[in-house]
Design a protein that fits this description.
Blueprint lengths: L2 E7 L4 H16 L14 H9 L2 H8 L3 E6 L11 H21 L4 E5 L10 H14 L3 E4 L19 H10 L3 E3 L11 H19 L2 H4 L5 E3 L10 H10 L5 H5 L3 E4 L5 H10 L5 E2 L22 H7 L4 H15 L7
Parallel strand pairs: 1-2, 2-3, 3-4, 4-5, 5-6, 6-7, 7-8
Helix pairs in contact: 4-5, 5-6
């Protein structure tokens, strides 16, 4: 079985976008508007139509079996509105994912969005994670280290602010994928710099804090190949050494994992040369940020299975990357 640990519902029916537009309009009139959750009005058939020509077709074409599926990352928009806005929006997005997992239980497993409104604590996120795991059978969540949307006004990931959420992650035995949302700061391109910079920043925050020792069973997946981390592994090793930390491999590799959302062969080769196969999970971002065809290869950039297939690793390592690591990192993933 080939498990894709990183997929997003980027093809949701238009009604979801209209709901968000209505929220925005209400907030323009009153930034403190509490609003009501309301209804989306999306049918099961609309969900099927949104997937069968996109993610489902691509699974079949590219030879993957199961996608860990979460709401569209760039639409999480934690910086938009207030805590009520975020809660209503997040609940709707997660409920759509749950409906997908009910319609296509062989193809999709849920991963939760969180209602991380800036200026609030993590209580609502603990509540939503618990709901999604215990009621919907979700196996993980996407945790945004920068809910401000590119201004980084919140506390770093090693701050005690996050600890109640980390405690709940460990109690539920679910990992978090570190994943920011769209950047409202014009200095950043959302998918080209904000995502990759956030991946690198989160790794450094973990390295310099006590999170991984205070929560020895916690697990984080850093997407997009880890941002700059594999390329600068020597820098991070040297910094850990200068701070009298344990060796980098000992410090982070029991808790931190990387996915294969890297869109060319040399990038995957570097990732697999630097990071042990036990810490790499197959992923493609299906359907994500880079959808075009590479003129050098004639294949889609995000057909990442092709890169792993061609990597110079053992078949045992390939099995770890494609399936076995996901089962270990996401232990609530119940497969036959």
């Amino acid at each position: 079985m080939i498990i894709d640990c990183h997929g997003h519902y980027t093809t949701a029916p238009d009604a979801l976008g209209r709901y968000r537009d209505a929220q925005r309009a209400e907030l323009e009139a009153d930034p403190l508007a509490r609003g009501t959750k309301g209804l989306l009005g999306i049918s099961d058939q609309q969900i099927r139509d949104s997937l069968e020509g996109a993610q489902l077709a691509m699974q079949a074409e590219r030879g993957t079996d199961l996608t860990l599926f979460s709401p569209r990352a760039s639409w999480m928009g934690h910086h938009i509105g207030n805590a009520h806005t975020s809660r209503h929006w997040t609940e709707h997005c997660n409920e759509l994912i749950y409906r997908i997992t009910e319609l296509y239980p062989v193809n999709f497993v849920g991963v939760a969005q969180l209602p991380q409104s800036p200026g609030t604590d993590m209580t609502a996120s603990v509540t939503e994670l618990t709901r999604c795991v215990e009621e919907y059978g979700f196996v993980g969540c996407n945790l945004n280290p920068d809910p401000s949307g590119g201004y980084w006004t919140g506390p770093p990931m090693g701050d005690r602010y996050w600890y109640p959420f980390y405690e709940r992650m460990c109690e539920l035995d679910v990992p978090a994928m570190v994943h920011v949302s769209a950047a409202c700061n014009p200095a950043f391109h959302t998918t080209g710099s904000h995502y990759l910079g956030a991946d690198t920043t989160a790794f450094m925050q973990m390295l310099t804090s006590d999170v991984l020792t205070d929560f020895p069973t916690i697990r984080f997946v850093i997407p997009h190949g880890g941002g700059a981390v594999p390329y600068h592994w020597g820098r991070f090793r040297g910094l850990a050494q200068a701070m009298d930390k344990p060796p980098l491999e000992e410090l982070v590799l029991g808790n931190v994992f990387f996915d294969t959302c890297v869109y060319h062969q040399p990038g995957i080769d570097l990732l697999l040369d630097v990071v042990p196969a036990e810490n790499v999970l197959f992923a493609s971002e299906l359907l994500g940020a880079v959808r075009g065809i590479d003129p050098r290869t004639g294949h889609h950039y995000d057909d990442t299975k092709r890169y792993v297939d061609r990597a110079d690793v053992s078949e045992e390592a390939r099995a770890l990357i494609f399936s076995e690591n996901a089962r270990r990192v996401f232990p609530r993933l119940r497969l036959g």
